[in-house]
Amino acid sequence: MEKLIELLKGVRDDVDFSECTTLVDEGILDSFDIVEIINLIDEEYGIEIPAIEIVPENFNSVEAILNMIQRLQEE
Amino acid sequence: MEKSILSYLEKSEQTFPDKIAFSDDKYELTYHELANSARSIGSFLIEKIGIRKAVVVYMEKNARNIVAFMGAAYAGCFYVPLDAQMPMERINIILKTLQPAAVIYDDKTEKFLSLMETDCIKVLYDEICILPQDKEKLEITLREMIDTDPLYILFTSGSTGIPKGVIVCHRSVIDYADWVVKTFELDESTIFGNQTPFYFSMSVLDIYATIRSGATLHIIPKMLFSFPVKLLEFLKEKKINTIYWVPSALSIVANLGALDVVQLPSLKKILFAGETMPTKQLNIWRRHVPDATYANLFGPTEVTDIGIYYVVDREFSDDEPIPIGVPCDNVDALVMDEDGKLVKESGKIGELLIRGSFLACGYYNDPQKTKETFIQNPFNNSYPEKVYSTGDLVYWNENEELVYVSRKDFQIKHMGNRIELGEIENAMSALDGVDMCCCLYNKESDQIVAVYTGNLEMKRLSQLLKKKLLRYMMPNICHRMESMPLNMNGKIDRKKLKDKYVK
After folding, report:
1. What letter does residue B210 receive in the DSSP assignment?
2. How far apart are CA B400 and CA B347, in angstroms?
3. CB-based contact B258 A36, cutoff 8 Å
4. From CA A23, how far away is CA A45, in angstroms rounded?
5. Is domain B415-501 given the CATH code 3.40.50.1440 in the classification?
């Protein structure tokens, strides 16, 4: 979790990732941020996120992002 | 022949009063509601500021903006779209040039009003859209308006820093809307999915083709463009059959594999403009939506939106550039070489000049800049005739189609050779593992700097490019980014990249 938060801070250092659960719903992350995060996950975790997983529910919080990563790692 | 686009609005209002004209995720407006509220706003503006004045529309992007635009038109005024996302610094630069007579705002932009450097009246949209109409004053105003009166000003993103206000009259927009509808066979069954911001010239096609044909336009929520599967589901749900997007938006959808997930049986017309459409991404779309009509449109804000177009009518390999095509009906394209001679033969590169009624009137309150690019037709010494020098380099191919090379200022001299940065970009885009790319030139160090996104390793990129490009065209420095910065219009932000990598 820590590693992920650190990576996300690299994208947006002004966002409180440890607490927020409405990153997408409240428009805190914008379109560029999402694309950057997707590419970051590919690089750092070696996971190419399939299009069907690129949905707001999976990016609303660090927990959601981590869950998605773990789920994809198991496949 | 119409003298005001309001004629198109009222025709559509009479024919389709209760049909949805514009909608977004919060609001929905029928043609009657649109025209009615616009007449209220128009009446108010006639009373308060008079005819032929600048009206800033500073609201969150939604269907109601269109009402405000038409309201300004009813008052014989011209509207200037700004939106809630624009940085105040830029807005104030614009206000300085503009000196508007009124600002129409909404509850989302209200909090920024005190930062705006203007003393003109500021009015809340919700208050003025329900005011009583003054039929008599509206009629008088309509009679006083002529087709060469301005309809709007769009401020260009100004790659050099200071935005320029391109002022466009009713005549040009009427002409343009007629061309769009005729060429792409748009009609009342057209359902648009709008991506482009209203301060960007591409939205002119969306808005006025809709009004002209009594079509429906859905404003796509911006966030959906980061969630391509959700985006395509939106297109499917609303049965959108026509889109006119920037290539970056189409590319993100293609690159993230969303087209494998969602079928789009309704989508029939896919138009694009604003920057070069990478052929590789276009081919991905063509494989998944084979029955649609694809068209590449080309033109600067200074000719309303588009002057040249190409309907994709054959196969292209991933590294073949898509032509920009032929001049629109009632538009003339001239190619001028460095010696000022007219180029007619194929293969010779020259600057594109555009002639015709799509031309804007010029830049508002900037006679100097206007003189530089809205010039006397160099091939006509007999009477005053304006052409617009685009600053774009093109050539005619063997099919008598124009092909875009690059901006005049992207033609560089490197290691003694003349190089088009666009050519290098083209070669890079075609590679597997490159999503988006941009080439810059560092004059001081005489180096070509390539920036790209994608999972292709830099070493491999160099190896593959060596097979495609002449030695002296090879980028000297490569940077790989997680994501490409896009500017407000959704195009690759070259200025940001320059600031980062070439300074």
Report:
1. H
2. 10
3. no
4. 21
5. no
Q: What angle separates helix A2-11 from helix A62-74, to the nearest 10 degrees?
A: 120
Cβ of residue B244 closer than 8 Å to a chain A Cβ = no
pTM of the model: 0.87
Q: Which of B229, B482, B485 sits opposite A39 (nearest CB)?
A: B482
Q: What is the ipTM of this complex?
A: 0.83
Question: Which CA distances in Å does B361 have to B7, B38, B388?
Answer: 21, 25, 10
Comma-separated ranges of CATH 3.30.300.30 domains in chain B:
415-501
Q: Which of B217, B266, B226, B265 is nearest to B244 (CA)?
A: B217
| pLDDT of amino acid B160 | 54
Looking at B239-333, list the stretches that DSSP marks H as alpha helix, in order from N- to C-terminal side: 247-255, 279-288
Asked if B131 reaches chain A (Cβ–Cβ under 8 Å), the answer is no
Residues 417-476 of B with CB under 8 A from A: 453, 455
Is the model's pLDDT at B489 over the cut of 90?
A: no
> Is residue B291 pLDDT above 70, yes or no?
yes
Interface test with B, best of A30, A31, A42, A55 (most B CBs within 10 A): A31
How far apart CA B35 and CA B8 sit, in angstroms, is 11
Tell me the pLDDT tens digit for each residue of A10-41: 888 888 898 899 999 888 888 778 888 998 89
Whole-number pLDDT of residue A13: 82
Q: Per CATH, the architecture of B331-356+365-406 is what?
A: Roll (2.30)
Round to whole Å and give the CA distance between B8 and B2: 8
B227 in reach of chain A (CB within 8 A): yes
Q: Which residues of A touch B85 (CB under 8 A)?
A: none
Domain residues for the domain of A37 are 2-74
pLDDT tens track for B19-31: 999 999 999 999 9
Considering only alpha carbons, which residue of chain B is nearest residue A54? B227
Each residue's pLDDT tens digit, B66-94: 999 999 999 999 999 998 888 888 899 89
